[in-house]
Specification:
Elements lengths: L16 H23 L4 H8 L3 H4 L1 H24 L1 H20 L4 H30 L4 H8 L1 H20 L4 H4 L1 H15 L13 H24 L5 H23 L14 H30 L5 H7 L1 H21 L2 H24 L4 H16 L2 H10 L6 H36 L8 H17 L1 H5 L10 H8 L8
Helix pairs in contact: 1-6, 1-7, 1-8, 1-10, 4-5, 4-6, 4-11, 4-19, 5-6, 5-10, 6-7, 6-19, 7-15, 7-18, 8-15, 11-12, 11-19, 13-14, 13-18, 13-19, 13-20, 15-17, 16-17, 16-20, 19-20
Length: 495
Amino acid sequence: MPTVNQDQASYPDKIDARLWRIAGVCVLGSFMNLLDTTVVTVAQRTWVATFGSSQAVVGWTITGYTLALAAVIPLSGWAADRFGTKRIFLGSVLAFTLGSLLCAVAPNITLLIAARVVQGIGGGLLTTLTLTIVNREAGPKRVGRVMAVLGIPVVLAPAFGPVVGGWLIDSYSWQWIFWVNLPVGVAAIGLAAMVLPSDDPAPQETFDVIGMLLLSPGLPALLYGMSEIPSRGTMADRHVWIPVATGTALIVGFVFHALYRTDKPLIDLRLLTNRAFTLTNAAMFFYIVSTFGASVLWPSYFQQLLNYTPLQAGMGVVPRGIGAAVTMPLAGMLMDRRGARGILFIGVTLIVAGMGVFAYGVVGRQEALPALLTGLTMVGLGMGATRMPLVAVAMQTLAPHQMARGSTLIKVNQQVAAAVGTALMSVILTSQLNRESAAGANPADLSHAYGVAFVTAIVLAGLTFIPLAFMYKRPEATTPRHTEQRSGQSSTGVR
């Protein structure tokens, strides 16, 4: 049985077959999780008709999953340290597969929502464990290339998930969007048992009960309140401000507790004293707010202004996924050879420029369809050169024993950023559409409203340059793991 490399200071430059097998297992688990997240979006109307329910109730198949995911992410770092990453990975894939089975046989909407919560528990643990496992095994010299492989599900699942879901529902039945997970899940469990390295759990690792009671309900409450903003239309609605205020208060309480009341917090906020780790997370926040928010607008624009069907709208954003798939492996190779800073600047520049080209196409309407597709392709190229390199840089700055908690902090940051981006763009678009309608604008010509929203996304993407500009070159002679062995502290520079 393979074991974790104990000599953290020595990693080869070449990626061997063993590391590819480990990365492949992680990709399989991630792809199953991320694909299912996007597939269910096209089943919403089908469930409304099948179960005779309302869209508000059916929407909880997505909301329940998201909240369960948010609730368990803070626990994943402690669980990985306490029980070992391999055991938790196997358990999380098992939970997700079991949840898929329960979804497929659910006789009513209530049990379907409950089964989606089970899926969310498994999915939340998977999202952080894959980062920890891959980074521990790859080391700083190979992490860029391996993270590029791990990023494949991130870019392909949103692009092809709605297409796959629509095909399964139209050709077979909605149950098949869950049935297909069973053989994949069983294969992932079998391969993980054989391939993933066994690490040493730390039975003495104490559990931060107070931190769990503060953060596990606080984060879902905050995200739920933000998710209600688009449908409620205002922050003043009690369905928005009560969960947002409650979640914020609990999170603030956790911050105080983690910094001043315990030596073993659920999430180690002291990692933010690492300058490079903080800068990369700040850049990641702006990047996700802009791109995730824009991803909400693209399908809506295609359907509302260009009269595309949902399937056509899904196909319309495929160029973004293709663009990301092209640059992601190239960015990984260049990062391992030359460092990430230049790649990140190029990636963000492509995102900003691509959004600008798309915004130009929005003004031109149908006559500028080539500009829309060109803009989406450019954004995809930029995303492939930005997302996983940012994550890799953040993980590179951590010592091996910090990776599980660091992965958790990164995922919490990503979850909050995605919620902020979705809520912000939805509110801006809704307010602009209401203003256009009040002014008597032609409902078929509301391109100005979308233009304002896309310009906002461009500005937010541009803010990513600020933390990137403060990143400094990491000395070639040392790596975070070398530094860890000498002084017990992780490096604070990036390459």
